[in-house]
Amino acid sequence: MNRVSYSRGCGPAATLPLHGECLGPSRSLRVLAACAAFGLIVAASAPVAKAQTFTTLYHFCSQTNCTDDENPYAGLVQASDGNFYGTNLGSGLEDNQGTVFQLAIPTPAVTFSSNPLAFGSVAENSSSTLDLTITNSGTASLDITNFSISAGSPAFAIVGGGTCNLNGQSLTAGGSCTVAITFSPTIGGALGGTLAVTDNAGGSPQSVNLAGTGTLANAGVSPSSLDFGNVSTVSISASQPVTLSNTGTAPLGISSIAISANFGQTNNCNGSVAAGSSCTISVTFAPAATSVFSGTLTITDSSNGVANSAQTVSLSGTGIVQTINWPGPIVVPPPPSVPLPGSPTEPVLPRSGGGSPIAIGPGRPILSPLTPLSPLSGATAVASIERFSLSSLSFAAQAAGTSSSSQSITLSNSGDAPVPIFNITVSGDFTQTNNCGSTLSAGATCAISVTYKPAVAGPSTGTLSIYQNPDRSLRTVALVGTALSGGKPNQAVAPASPAGPPPAN
């Protein structure tokens, strides 16, 4: 028998079950305090299974003249905190006028690290995971038997990775573990759910509100169609822009950008467009034949949460044959004078433009007279851009290591569409300068100046090429010239003596 001081009071009354025990009034010999004749709170089974703490909360008649009254009489009640409260008669430190007491019973309690558990904004078809900490804030072991997400909340799920055993978890007083919850929205807007935790604490199951917002991308293209009009069959049109915008609240993922034959595209989208932003797709038209063409620009993305959503732009254009005038005349000036020392009786080389002959050395016959090719005076070429032949451009005899005067060629576009000029090149011992730029407008002209600078003696050939794109030449002109060695005509091919063969170069 455990006795306590008489001042704790006598005569409690009530019956209340707790953890399989019956707590209530008793007049038996198994009392926990004095005043056995009146009875105190005892356990109906012995020994008492759970530690209990008895605390006197108030003594009556503690005020002057007992204005706070005396001898309270009330049954035993259990409060929301799990403890029992009651009164005693004829006891207390102040004239034994009764008390109010607390009988604390060890119980588990649940505390969550966050309630609600808020995920914020998450893009559709993506996910975010948060850990929820569960703590036993009570004084007895917490036994968790189940974790569950409320029905109708498919965006939320319990996943592995937490420290709680999802098949059952016991936590000692003050212990804790974590549960991993994921939020994976498939629609836009505010979404919610509830996590329920079933255990042996009061108020089971405990619940945690789950909250998150699904965000969606929303794609749009402008304009919805492009018309390139008439374009030469070997040209590439000027580019036209298409703007891809995302007016949604999540990034727009782009899986592909495709375009029909005869059209091309470049873009700066880099695989995605941020919410509220845009990117540009530059479209060109390069017809392969004289015909009317139509096509489609197709952008496959994640708009409105739909996998492989497609945005389209209609394309059209007409391929035509473009004509270019290459007017003349292409005039070759007389060859320059090359004064050389020697006797007037020496063999001479006649000048193509008249004047005194050029001596080539004593006793050296001319093996073959050097006569420049006839100039192409008044030559004019008018052809479609699919024809490539033109007459040669000839230069007079030129001393090796020196430069000739330039000859100019005029390029004209008499068609009704611009002609792109990708590059102008020359080969061999020839150089060129031009003012043609990258595009020759309809009705416009430009000039190409060609110069001959031979490196070694002998005949020279080359080609002037005008390209409309990297792999196709628009026009070519053959270039011809003859180099004189050391400034002496035909010296490189003259024989060592009149009777012997010509010396080797």
Can you walk through the features of this model?
- Helix content is 0%, strand content 44%.
- It has four domains: 6-104, no CATH class; 110-215, Immunoglobulin-like, CATH 2.60.40.10; 220-320, Immunoglobulins (Immunoglobulin-like, Sandwich), CATH 2.60.40; 325-484, Immunoglobulin-like (Sandwich), CATH 2.60.40.
- The chain has a five-stranded mixed β-sheet with strand order 9-16-15-11-13, with no helix packed on it. The protein has a five-stranded mixed β-sheet with strand order 18-25-24-20-22, with no helix packed on it.
- A hairpin with a 2-residue loop joins strand 38 and strand 39.
- The chain starts with 15 loop residues before the first strand and ends in a 21-residue tail after the last strand.
- It has 505 residues and is mainly beta.
- The chain has no helices and 39 strands.
- Mean pLDDT is 75; it is low at 1-49, 340-349, 358-390 and 487-505.
- The chain is rod-shaped, with a radius of gyration of 53 Å.
